[in-house]
Design a protein that fits this description.
With 178 residues, this protein is of the alpha/beta class. The chain folds into two domains: 30 residues; 142 residues, Glutaredoxin, CATH 3.40.30.10. The radius of gyration is 20 Å and the shape is globular.
Length: 178
């Protein structure tokens, strides 16, 4: 296939794809209606989740008591596994981890393999829980891993997708503790 033909095929595919997406949103909702901004400084949406041991809890259970670190992850995500192994494990096993910090790793959907999640949770000093698409959407955690830090007043102090170093995590948690 020559360059002009390939360019023509790609151009037509892009136009058709653009019309399809535009048609979907015009018939249903606007793009803006589908984007949920979780901004630093805003109150975090409350949630109820169940950990791997069957205990249910709400975000509001930690209000005025703990800074909550949420790691939205995907069981098959290598970046998530490396972040947990190299950063969260180190932070949570560190003797200097403040007692008023709660770290929770949760799946981004309810369809994750619960048995694998339970295996991953063994011998960890933080909580693993089944998340949901609604919770992922509410926090804007569209990539794995996504880290959200919520202070004791229930306000979001940090929200970003992607891994970070232990020192960066500590810095962001310490800012939330202030």
């Amino acid at each position: 296939m020559d360059t002009k033909t390939l360019f023509g095929v790609l151009l037509v595919a892009g136009i058709v794809g653009g019309f399809s997406i535009n048609s979907y949103f015009m018939n249903n909702e606007t793009i803006e209606d589908n984007i949920i901004d979780v901004e630093v400084g805003n109150e975090a949406p409350n949630f109820t989740i169940t950990d791997t041991e069957g205990n249910s809890f709400n975000l509001s259970d930690f209000e005025n008591d703990k800074v909550v670190v949420l790691e939205f992850m995907n069981m098959g995500c290598g970046s998530c596994h490396n972040f947990e192994k190299n950063v969260l494990k180190s932070y949570c096993d560190d003797d200097t981890m403040p007692e008023d910090v709660k770290v929770i790793s949760l799946t981004q959907t309810e369809n994750e393999d619960k048995d694998k999640l339970e295996e991953r949770a063994e011998d960890k000093n933080w909580t693993y829980a089944m998340g949901s698409e609604e919770m992922t959407d509410a926090f804007g955690a569209d990539r794995s891993p996504s880290i959200v830090i919520i202070d004791k007043d229930g306000l979001i102090t940090f929200s970003e997708s992607g891994s970070m170093s232990k020192s960066e995590l500590e810095e962001k948690i310490n800012e939330a503790l202030e």
